[in-house]
Amino acid sequence: MSQHYDVIIVGGGMVGATLAVALGEQSDLNIALIEAYPPTPLNEFDKPDLRVSALTRASETLLNNLTIWQQLIPSRISQFTDMKVWETNSSSLHFDSAEIGESLLGNIVENRHLQQACLTRCKQIPTINFLCPAKPISLTDNTLTLDDGRTLTAELVVGADGAQSPLREWAEIETHGWDYQQSAVVCTVTTEHSHQQTAWQRFLPEGPLAFLPLSDPHQCSIVWSNSTEETELLCQLDDDIFKDTLGKAFESTLGEIQEVSKRAKFPLKLRHADHYVESGFALVGDAAHTIHPLAGQGVNIGFLDAATLAEVVLEAHGKGRKIGNLHTLNKYQRRRKGDNLVMQMTMDAFKRVFGSELEPVRWARRFGLQTVNKSALLRKLFMRQASGYRFANPKLTKL
Question: Where in the chain are all domains bearing CATH 3.50.50.60?
């Protein structure tokens, strides 16, 4: 016998769990949140997780409005007030939150920590049923079959199950994009000098190298994009050789690299689903789109997906309409797909421009960096855009 829900969300990561909270907190909808892998608990004194996200102020506002932010461990949140970007000593940019009247530009939060906060909030809402471990094995006409034989039905099924989304495949939604033939190395490093609550990024010919500040003033999470082959070599280096190689690539900006954690890598690909919705079905987050990580926008646009889908579903539910109706879901697609595509193409253009060794391109980017750095107006425009606040944002992301 099938168990029926109003909404089934497959994927209990940051975006899927946030969508569950956004729907469950503001309605009587009966929601199932399905996650295949039980999350590993994280406490105040654990070492920093390898994967982190740079959250915009709009994402922070969304999480605050949903009482998710309040579930985070304060000592594991790292605020950053400045951002420094450079290619050579003569081509650099400095963004300071004070220029736009803000106390900070954003927050660095470990992915596992944020997922834990989202799920903690889910468990406080009685209309959300968290099924974990549970793995879907098929989807047919809004009937989801789990690996233990259970079947679930819903008026709306949402795929929040990541870049390799099985739900997207079962719904026969194709994607288009390309493989950058690159991977990124991630690890935690301890530096001689304080990070000064600053996010640092150096553009190298092979890809950007980012140092993201953690709550310890001498610790950063690094993301180093490189060719797949070079990334493999970097992951295999002896720690001392890796520290030396990393320090040279970063021009010893924060002094000596004193310690490094274990390293991990992930492939860099651009993918975009041909469409996000069908009758009774929707995609959010990485299941709908993946982008180059150089500006750390992936999870932020995923949160905007979740907030927008929640807004259109709650509006329909409040008016007594079917929440899985294609007309309703198309509103979500119209509001998000174009914006996500623009973000994808912008990040792709940055990647290609800063990866080119052609002299005219090198001259143009040096000129561009110098022009922006000399213009307070342009810097403010960039920072406003990077903060995530836009006129058309969903209500949940607004103060």
Answer: 3-78+106-177+269-397
